[in-house]
Amino acid sequence: MFIRIFLSLSAAATLLLTGCAAGPGGWIDKKQVTAAARAKGLVDVRAAIPGIRVDLRYATRHNVTGRPLYPRNMPCLLRAATLERLKVAQAALKAQGYGVKIWDAWRPPEVQRLLVSKDGESGMFMDPETSGWSRHCGGVSLDATLVDASGHEMRMPTAFDENFAQAGSDQIPADPVVRQNLQILHSAMRAAGLKPLPAEWWHFDDIDHISHPVLVVKGEDIGILVR
């Protein structure tokens, strides 16, 4: 009887552990992962801002690597203070009939290394060895675009992580519709304390963390494996 009970408990523990941690394209126990993330200071954006649109591109093949780098049900995570800024921006946009769609938020540093190795020569991804960690890895940056009230993406200067030469937030689009859409998004984000990155119109940094070292949260510490 004791042996049977011991084996049953061991099997349950194994299932619990394997269910919590998952690699790219797999499934995680989201409740456990978000609880572990919360202990590290990261908050689930979807839970905090009901109805916000989220399309984490690194959980899909629609990114520069052509394969998923996150689990399929990866939570969208930010630091609590950064999340409060996003709430302000989302409310301002909603009042105008628009909203934010998030393409990336907290990014495991393990994924950052993969992105650098894949596309490092473009200069799009910060190499931690030479430039320090991306603010994404601390949950104080996000990549986002503008959507209408139905969640349809508005026309913007470029697609996500594409056409880097034309992706600068300080460039003035020739198309007046694109120019207006960009202005609407950037005005709301700036007013909330989320500063556009000059090289990428879709990237926004919490102004309180631009001059400070990033407190990195590893994926493995909250049950997310990268390989």
UniProtKB/TrEMBL annotation:
Gene3D superfamilies: 3.30.1380.10. The keyword Metal-binding applies. Keywords: Cell wall biogenesis/degradation, Dipeptidase, Hydrolase, Metal-binding, Metalloprotease, Protease, Signal, Zinc. One of its GO terms (biological process) is cell wall organization. HAMAP family: A_A_dipeptidase. It catalyses: D-alanyl-D-alanine + H2O = 2 D-alanine. The keyword Ligase does not apply. This is D-alanyl-D-alanine dipeptidase. Its EC number is 3.4.13.22. It comes from Brevifollis gellanilyticus. The lineage of its organism: Bacteria, Pseudomonadati, Verrucomicrobiota, Verrucomicrobiia, Verrucomicrobiales. The record marks R107 as: Transition state stabilizer. Zn(2+) binds at H136, D143, H203. SUPFAM superfamilies: Hedgehog/DD-peptidase. Binds 1 zinc ion per subunit. The active site is at E200.
